[in-house]
Every structure is written in structure tokens, then in C-alpha cells.
Design a protein that fits this description.
By secondary structure, the protein is mostly helical. It folds into five domains: 88-259 and 266-270, no CATH class; 422-565, no CATH class; 577-700, no CATH class; 728-899; 901-1026, no CATH class. Helix content is 71%, strand content 0%. It is built from 39 helices and two strands. A hairpin with a 3-residue loop joins strand 1 (425-426) and strand 2. The longest helix has 42 residues, at 2-43.
Length: 1026
């Protein structure tokens, strides 16, 4: 039979080879005929023309239509299978502008998520930063994805209940979803592994951050402002916010990830067609948003006269703002003169100015000067044109004098009709009885700044700009505290003045320091008004001098470090780095009451605990330091000469960020009270000890073994007391001492395993002493707890079961820590670092660390099975989950000498889970129920259920043999017994039997799809695969 089959296969092979040979000969003959016949025919034709360039005269034309030979296909397959050379295109260069764009929307999303989301983000950031210290960027990507998925689900779940209030909140759900996804794209661009694997996706993500992200952030901020602003104002505010953000992104910017394939390829992040589409959407979206909102406002219709005036005003405003963007590249791309944009700017500006009075009046701005506002805007615009005109200076000077005189007349007309009995103390300290003189001085200062800007005196203009900012802030804050100036106007004027200062510094009109000081004053004033409104609760809080100074400090620190710092400078010196970090942290600490407390009230649903403020300071400080480390890394990537030292500096900054973030998480979780009590003191000492522990892990100080052991014993005091308080209702001195000893031994073991580079006799001895100390302490603790348990009265509620003693949980946690730590050492340090036997002859009989680890792991699994839930099904699932502990088993010289990792590592877990499920199904079967009430059929069903469980046992045996030995025990057993798992599902009397049946079905299908050859039974597998 076998010979016959072998002969038939041989005949088929020979026929295929003969057919291939015949086709090859025919193709060769045709090609040869084509090459020899065409030149002869061409030579007989006319000459002297372009016939030699005819593509049909190519002698190899026929070869192009032939199929590729087998050797060519093999070469192509080998080239495709060859691993690609992965190159990092470089870090993302524009983290600062994305952070500034994302910050307001991030605060809003955090407020929607509450304290849980803040903790999830803080813990995730800490975990990713800790994983990055290992130097493997792939693990960072995996950790980020694992943390991002539940965070994203929680954010969506937090916003989803708002749909019950209004269907329009579906837009908010979409905005939050897009914001979270794009923020995740921004974060994942920081990982080197992702940039190397997916450079095309990085380029797409960068383009989305430059186009869609500003729109989404502006929409979220306007959605939040809709709670405090009239609905009719939202389109205008939205257009202004988006305009400011587009100033950062529409400038020609070199991409971080694009590579130039041809000389004509554009390497900008946003191509000119996309810039054109973005500008068109910016012009149209504001008016469209107004028309959409006018349909929702019950008092106004979309086709009333006032609505049409509003529509024309917003359309002209967006047209005017679009001409202020960097759109010259659009006109150059389209071949149009740029004077068209200038004409559009003037026409839209004039139209917007003419109709601004009724619009502003409808917005709620009430002033006797409002009818004269268009005249004042026109005079200021004309004065700017006159001062910018350099020819005919005498005539221009005369016109400027006339215009300035007109402005002074308008100012006198405005101030003449103001109330003259204004009496107020600025900040409650400085009297301002002559308040109008200060306003006049501010007006003259504005005119002087306007005149100085036309004289190219940049230093003088910077000084005047700072003085003007101070005088404007004094006037506005005084009017605000007197109730004559709204908080919204205070913030709008501050943000507008900040934008103008940034633009003037960008074009070189003012110096670097003057722009920072002006920005500090205006942003500090706006933040002071916002925080006063949040702290007061009624929207009318007064701005104090201390709050203004404190918020100016944090504004100066952030502006000088992140916003106005030059991107072209070389590596920062260590002293400058330390100065920047200290300035950021101190400025943040100064604002604990005026900035962190309002943020904590927004995020934690009105809670005013100063513990939350301390935890928030740690987390925000860690975030600022983390952002600063990325900025330092960006500078180091630009400076190749000093990359080594700058990378070291960036690593130290990253460790500091990790320490602060972990400190914030600990404070938020432990939540100690600020009171003079033993419990509060213990909580703060516990937090400080954990902080020192994280700092010790991050910095790796060089200490002698004795000093390190003493330090770790001191740090183990609080965790030992905490474990004792958590396990036992009363604090006993003996239990506390033993828990401290266990904690100290575990700390020493962890630190030795982290710091060792190779396994020496000293490190082996220290590890064994620590393990012996832990085991001995656990035995003594078990004896004390057992003595106390036996001394209880028989009917005592505490004497329920021997397995309910608290010492079992202590033993379980201790065993898990020991198993996991030693397994990590064996995996990370490579198997050679933990030998299975001693290398010295006279100590050859000593027990090895691996054997001790295996004994502890098996005992921990058995203890874990006794500490499961009371419910039978949950207890069985708990035991299966605890079998993961067996993944910590290692190769030793006695129990597991053949354990080599890989698939063998999963074999004990699979075997333990299958055994637990089988045993639990048999024990919980209906066979053991009482026979007479249940009936004979129930007894037969239970017996048949047990038979099915025994029939499925070979499947788990085959899985174990395949994982442990790498061999196939019986393919027919798997194929024919797997369908019986479906029958067990139908006849199961408990949930455990269902779980067993599903596990058997999955195991059988997995083996049939990926492991078993699945060859027909009539053919020998060895012949089939030969």
C-alpha cells in the first residue's frame, strides 16, 4: 500500500517537472525567435528616422511578459522576509506647543473624570516612567496601551451619563473621545520603539496634532465656557481661541518624521492644500456655529435682523483674523497676488468695525462710550498706518498729531461722563483717590508705546510695555474689586495683551525679558480673577495682592522655562537645570492656596482638603519636571556634541519626576490628615519613608552593605506596622516586631537583587539569610497566631475556621513577594546569575536559591487556594487564577532540573488549573446530592457528568505533554474527545463544569489549529512531510 502511494506520488512529480520543462523550452524558443527576427525586419525598413527609439524594437520586450522564474521568486521572498533595519527618525520636536494647546482641555477632562481619573493618570505616568528606566522602549509602549485602555473607557463612562440630560451632549462625547485619542497619539510619539516601527503613523499623528487637535481643544474650552458665558458670545470666543492656536501651527514647520525621498518633496508638517482647507474651515465654522446656536435660542430666530447682523459680524471677523494668519504661502501656491489678502483685510475690518456697536451691546457690554468705539477703532487704525509710512515724514507727523489729538479728545469725552466719586483702595492697601489720573497716565502710556514702536527703539519699547502692563492691571483689578469690571473682561484683556506681547517678541520688536515680564503680569491678572471666582463660589471674589503676586510667580516660571526659551540653544548647564527645576517647584508651592486649591476643588468634587493640595502639588510638580526632561532631551538631540552628558542629565530629571509623581500617588491614596495625632503622624512618616524608598531606588546611591542594611531596616518600620494594623484588629508588640523583620528582610532581598551584577558568594549568602529570616519570622508569627486562636472560647465568633487566621494572609503576601522577586532576578539577570547548584566543591551539598524559591512558590500556591472566596464557583476560579503563581518556578537541581523556560513555564499553570477544575467538578457533581429527593435521573446525570470529566482528562494531559516535553502524545484522542466538551456544557450541574468544558474546548481547538499535524489517517505523517 505504501509502495503504491509512493509510486503514484513519484509519477505526479515527474509529470509536473516535464510540464515545467516544456513550458520553459517554449518560452525560450519564443524569446530567441523574437530577438533574431525583429532586427532583420527593422534593417529592411526605412532608416534615418526615429524608428530606433520605437519601444516595440526592444529585443527583450517579450521577456517582460514572461512569469518570473522560480529562483527570482525565491529571491524576492528572501528579500521580503529579511528583517528591516529600523532607524529612529528622532524625537517629536513640538511638545511645548502641544502641551500649551492641551492644558485647558486636559483640566476640563480631568474635572469630568474626578479623583479616580487623576489617580489613574498619576499611577500610569509613574508606571511608564518606571518602565522607561529599564531602557526598553517596547515595554513602555505595551505599558502605555495597557494603562490607556481602561482610562479611555472610564472617561467615556464619565461623560456618557450626560446624554440623559440632553442629546446635544453627544457632541461633547465625540469631542472628548477625539481629544483622548489624539492625546494618546501625542504621548505614544515619545516612545522610541513606536517611532522606529511605525514612522508613517508617526507622520500622520503629527499632522493630526497640527490640524485637528487645536480645533478639538478650542471646542472643549468653549464648551466649558458656555457654563459662564451667554450662548451668543460662544462663536466669537471660539473664533478667537482657535485663531490664537492656529498662530502656533499654521507657520511652515519642519516635520519630525518625514524623510525627503525626492528633491521636490515638501518636508513641512502641514502641506499647503491642508493649510488652505484649514483656513477655509476657520472662516466658515464660526458663522455656521452661530447659525446652529441661533436655532436653539428660543428668544431669537436665525432670520431676524439682529441675527443677520451677528452673522455678518462673525463672518467679517473671521475673514479679518484669517488674513492675519500665515497665508502668504497659500497665495504663492495658487499664483494670486498677496494684495488680495490686504484688500480683504481692510474690507472685513471696516465692516466689522461699523457693526460692532449693536453686536457688543447685544453681548451685554454697557457703556456710554460704546457708540464712539467704532470711531476710536478707526482713528487708531489710521494712526498705525500713518506711523508705519516712512516717506513724507513732515506730512505724516502732522497727520499723526491730528489723530493723537482726536484720541485725546475722545478720552476726555469718555472720562468726563464717568462717576467722579470713585473711592477705592487698591488691594486694600494703596489709596486710589486720584484714580482717574492713573487712567490718564495709562492712556498716555499707550500712545507713547505706539509712537515708540515706529522709531525702532526696542529696549525703550520693552520698558514702556512693562510699565503699561502694570498700570493697566492696577486699573482693571481696582475696577474689578469695586464691582465695575467683570471677570470675563479681565481674562479677555489679559489673554489679548499676552498674545500681542508674544507676537511682538516673535518679530523682534521687544526683548526677551520684557516679553516675559509683560506676559507674567497679564496672565497672572487673568488667573487671579479666575481663581477668585472659584474660591468665592458666587463669581464675585476679590483679587488680593498676595494672590496676584503668587500667580505671577508661577506664570513667570512657566513662561521663562517653556514658552519664551530659545529652541536653538545648546546644552543647558547643570546649574541652569537645577535653577529651572527649583523655580518651577517653588513657584508651584507658593500657589498652594490660590491655584492648587481651586484645581483640587474642581477635580475632587468640591473637596477642600489640604491633603489633596499636597498630593496635587507632587503630581503637578512631577508633571512639570517630566515635561522639562523632555525639553532637555529635545535640546540634547539637537546638540550631537554633548549628547552623552545631556542624556545623563535627562535621566536624572526623569528620576526626580518619577519620585515626585509616586509621592503624589501615595499621598492621594493614603490621604493623611493634618492634625496633631499619633495616627496622622504615623501616616506622614509612612509617606516620607516611601518617598525615601523611591528616591533610593531611583538614585542608586553607593553605600556599604552595612549602611544599606541599616537604612533599609529603618525604611521597613512603617510598612511592617501598616501590615500589622491591616491584618490584626489590635496592635501587639510581638506581631509588630515580626512584621517589621519580614519587611526588612524583603527590602534587603529586593535591593540586593536589583543592585547585583553577578552572583557571588556574598550575594548568595545575603539572599539565603533574608529568605531564612522571612521563613523563620513567618513560622514564629504562625505559632503566635495559632496559640491565640486555640486560646479563644469554643463559641467565640473569631474562632470560625483555622484558615481564617490573619497569619495566612501575611504568609501569602510574603510568599508572593519572594517568588516574584526571585523570578524577576532569574529572568532579567539571565539564568546564569542564579545557579542551580553551588560552584564550590566543599559547598556542593548546600541547598540552592532556586530550590528554595520553588518550594516557596508551591507552598504559596497551596496557601492561596485556601484563602479564596466563600462562594464555590468563585473559589474554583480563584484557585485557577492562583495557579499563575506557578509561573515563578525556576530550574533547580532536584525538583525541576529540566525547566528551561518558554512554553515549559506555562505547563505547571495549565496542569494545576486543569486538575483544580476537574477535581472541583467531580466534588460538586449532583452525584453526591441526597439520592431520594433528587431522583434516579439526577444520580445518572451526575454519574455521566463524572464520566465526561474523566473523558476530557486526556486533553489536558496532551496539552501538558506538548508544553512540557514538546511532543505529541495522541492526536486521535484530542480530535475525538474535544467534541465531548460541548456535551459537558449541556449536562453540567455547576458553573465549574462549564468552565472546565470551555477550557477543554479551547485547548483542543488550539492544539488542532497550531500544534497537531492533522494528517489523514491513511497517510503516514513521516511520508507526507518528507
Amino acid at each position: 500500500m505504501v509502495a503504491t502511494i509512493w509510486g503514484e506520488n513519484l509519477d505526479v512529480t515527474q509529470k509536473k517537472e516535464s510540464t515545467m520543462m516544456e513550458s520553459f523550452l517554449v518560452d525560450a524558443e519564443n524569446s530567441l525567435h523574437h530577438r533574431t527576427s525583429y532586427p532583420q525586419s527593422n534593417s529592411q525598413g526605412s532608416s534615418g528616422d526615429d524608428s530606433e527609439d520605437d519601444p516595440l524594437d526592444d529585443p527583450f520586450l517579450y521577456d517582460k511578459f514572461l512569469p518570473d522564474p522560480a529562483w527570482a521568486k525565491v529571491n524576492k521572498e528572501e528579500a521580503e522576509a529579511r528583517p528591516k533595519i529600523l532607524v529612529d527618525p528622532g524625537p517629536f520636536r513640538y511638545n511645548q506647543r502641544v502641551f500649551v494647546t492641551s492644558l485647558p482641555a486636559m483640566i476640563l477632562v480631568m474635572a469630568l473624570g474626578g479623583e479616580t481619573l487623576v489617580l489613574m493618570v498619576a499611577i500610569g505616568t509613574t508606571a511608564i516612567t518606571l518602565v522607561s528606566q529599564l531602557g526598553d522602549s517596547r515595554r513602555c509602549v505595551i505599558a502605555f496601551v495597557v494603562i490607556f485602555i481602561p482610562s479611555h473607557i472610564y472617561i467615556i463612562a464619565s461623560v456618557l451619563p450626560l446624554l440623559w440630560l440632553s442629546v446635544w451632549h453627544s457632541f461633547l462625547l465625540v469631542l472628548v473621545n477625539v481629544y483622548v485619542v489624539l492625546t494618546a497619539c501625542w504621548i505614544i510619539l515619545q516612545f522610541k520603539a513606536f517611532r522606529m516601527e511605525e514612522p508613517a503613523l508617526c507622520a500622520v499623528a503629527e499632522q493630526m496634532l497640527f490640524t485637528v487637535y487645536p480645533l478639538v481643544c478650542s471646542s472643549l474650552v468653549c464648551w466649558g465656557l458656555g457654563a459662564v458665558l451667554p450662548v451668543s458670545v460662544i462663536p466669537t470666543v471660539f473664533s478667537f481661541i482657535w485663531f490664537v492656536l492656529l498662530q502656533l501651527y499654521l507657520v511652515p514647520t519642519l516635520s519630525s518624521f518625514r524623510s525627503q525621498a525626492t528633491s521636490d518633496e515638501n518636508l513641512d508638517v502641514i502641506q499647503i492644500p491642508i493649510v488652505t482647507i484649514t483656513v477655509i474651515v476657520f472662516v466658515c465654522l464660526g458663522p455656521f456655529l452661530f447659525m446652529f446656536l441661533s436655532l436653539l435660542i428660543p428668544n431669537t430666530g436665525p432670520f431676524s435682523i439682529m441675527s443677520l447682523i451677528h452673522f455678518v459680524f462673525i463672518l467679517s471677523l473671521t475673514l479679518f483674523l484669517s488674513t492675519l494668519l500665515n497665508i502668504r504661502q497659500i497665495f504663492e501656491y495658487l499664483g494670486l497676488p498677496f494684495t488680495t489678502a490686504i484688500y480683504v483685510r481692510w474690507v472685513s475690518g471696516v465692516l466689522c468695525t461699523c457693526i460692532c456697536y449693536p453686536v457688543l451691546k447685544a453681548y451685554g457690554f454697557d457703556s456710554h462710550f460704546l457708540p464712539l468705539l467704532p470711531v476710536a477703532i478707526a482713528i487708531f487704525a489710521t494712526l498705525g498706518v500713518v506711523l508705519a509710512f516712512k516717506k513724507r515724514q513732515v506730512i505724516m507727523a502732522g497727520l499723526a498729531f491730528v489723530l493723537i489729538t482726536s484720541l485725546i479728545g475722545l478720552f476726555v469725552l469718555w472720562i468726563h461722563r464717568m462717576p467722579h466719586n470713585l473711592q477705592h483702595y487698591f488691594m486694600g492697601i494703596f489709596p486710589l483717590n486720584g484714580f482717574y489720573f492713573l487712567m490718564c497716565a495709562h492712556f498716555l502710556m499707550c500712545l507713547l508705546c505706539l509712537w515708540t514702536s515706529s522709531m525702532d527703539a526696542n529696549d525703550l519699547l520693552g520698558i514702556l510695555l512693562v510699565i503699561q502692563a502694570i498700570s493697566l492691571s492696577v486699573c482693571e483689578v481696582s475696577l474689578h474689586n469695586a464691582g465695575l469690571y467683570s471677570t470675563t473682561l479681565l481674562q479677555l484683556s489679559g489673554l489679548t495683551a499676552t498674545y500681542m506681547a508674544y507676537r511682538m517678541q516673535l518679530v523682534g520688536k521687544v526683548s526677551h525679558g520684557a516679553a516675559i515680564m509683560a506676559t507674567t503680569i497679564h496672565v497672572g491678572k487673568a488667573l487671579a480673577g479666575a481663581t477668585a471666582m472659584v474660591l468665592d463660589g458666587n463669581g464675585g471674589g476679590e483679587v488680593t495682592l498676595y494672590s496676584l503676586v503668587a500667580l505671577c510667580c508661577i506664570t513667570y516660571a512657566v513662561a521663562s522655562v517653556f514658552v519664551f526659551r530659545s529652541n536653538n540653544q545648546t546644552q543647558l548647564p547643570s546649574l541652569q537645570v537645577a535653577k529651572d527645576i527649583l523655580m518651577l517647584l517653588i513657584a508651584l508651592a507658593v500657589n498652594c492656596h490660590h491655584l492648587l486649591l481651586p484645581v483640587a476643588m474642581l477635580m475632587f468634587q468640591g473637596s477642600q482638603s489640604y491633603t489633596n493640595v499636597i498630593g496635587l502639588w507632587c503630581m503637578l510638580g512631577g508633571g512639570l519636571v517630566l515635561l522639562y526632561s523632555q525639553a532637555v532631551a529635545g535640546v540634547s538631540s539637537a546638540d550631537d556634541n554633548s549628547s552623552g552628558s545631556s542624556n545623563s542629565t535627562s535621566q536624572h530629571i526623569l528620576k526626580l519626576a518619577l519620585t515626585l509623581a509616586s509621592m503624589g500617588v501615595i499621598v492621594m491614596v493614603v490621604h493623611p490628615h493634618l492634625s496633631l495625632s499619633f495616627h496622622s503622624l504615623f501616616l506622614w512618616v509612612e509617606i516620607i519613608s516611601l518617598f525615601l524608598l523611591v528616591a533610593f531606588l531611583s538614585t542608586h546611591p553607593k553605600l556599604s552593605p552595612t549602611r544599606m542594611i541599616l537604612l533599609l531596616l529603618c525604611l521597613a518600620f512603617c510598612p511592617g506596622i501598616r501590615a500589622c494594623l491591616s491584618l490584626w484588629p489590635e496592635l501587639h508588640i510581638a506581631n509588630a516586631v515580626l512584621c517589621i523583620a519580614i519587611s526588612g528582610a524583603l527590602f534587603i532581598l529586593v535591593f540586593v537583587c536589583i543592585f547585583i551584577q553577578e552572583m557571588t558568594e556574598a550575594s548568595d549568602k545575603i539572599m539565603k539569610y533574608c529568605i531564612a529570616t522571612v521563613l523563620l519570622s513567618c513560622m514564629i508569627l504562625f505559632g503566635l497566631d495559632l496559640t491565640y486562636f486555640l486560646s479563644l472560647p469554643v463559641n467565640s465568633p473569631e474562632q470560625l475556621s483555622l484558615w481564617t487566621m490573619p497569619v495566612w494572609r501575611a504568609v501569602l503576601v510574603t510568599g508572593l513577594v519572594l517568588s516574584f522577586v526571585l523570578k524577576v532576578v532569574q529572568t532579567v539577570k539571565s539564568p546564569d546569575k542564579l545557579p542551580t547548584t553551588s560552584e564550590i566543591e566543599h559547598t556542593k551539598g548546600k541547598i540552592s536559591v532556586s530550590l528554595m524559591t520553588n518550594c516557596i512558590t508551591v507552598f504559596t500556591f497551596l496557601v492561596a487556594c485556601t484563602q479564596g472566596p466563600d462562594d464555590s464557583t468563585l473559589h474554583d476560579i480563584w484557585c485557577c487564577a492562583c495557579s499563575i503563581t506557578l509561573a515563578c518556578l525556576q530550574r533547580d537541581s532536584f525538583l525541576l532540573p529540566k525547566l528551561n523556560g518558554g512554553e515549559q513555564q506555562a505547563a505547571p499553570t495549565v496542569a494545576a488549573s486543569g486538575f483544580v477544575l476537574s477535581l472541583a467538578t467531580v466534588v460538586r457533581s449532583r452525584t453526591w446530592w441526597s439520592i431520594w429527593p433528587a431522583g434516579v435521573w439526577s444520580l445518572l446525570g451526575g454519574a455521566f457528568e463524572i464520566m465526561l470529566v474523566l473523558a476530557l482528562a486526556p486533553i489536558f494531559y496532551c496539552v501538558w505533554a506538548m508544553l512540557w516535553h514538546g511532543e505529541i502524545v495522541s492526536e486521535p484522542a484530542v480530535v475525538f474527545l474535544t467534541p465531548y466538551s460541548v456535551l459537558l456544557v449541556l449536562l453540567a450541574s455547576c458553573y465549574t463544569a462549564w468552565v472546565l468544558a470551555i477550557a477543554a474546548l479551547v485547548s483542543g481547538v488550539w492544539m488542532m489549529m497550531y500544534r497537531l499535524p492533522m494528517v489523514p489517517y491513511s497517510i503516514d505523517p513521516t511520508i507526507y512531510y518528507r
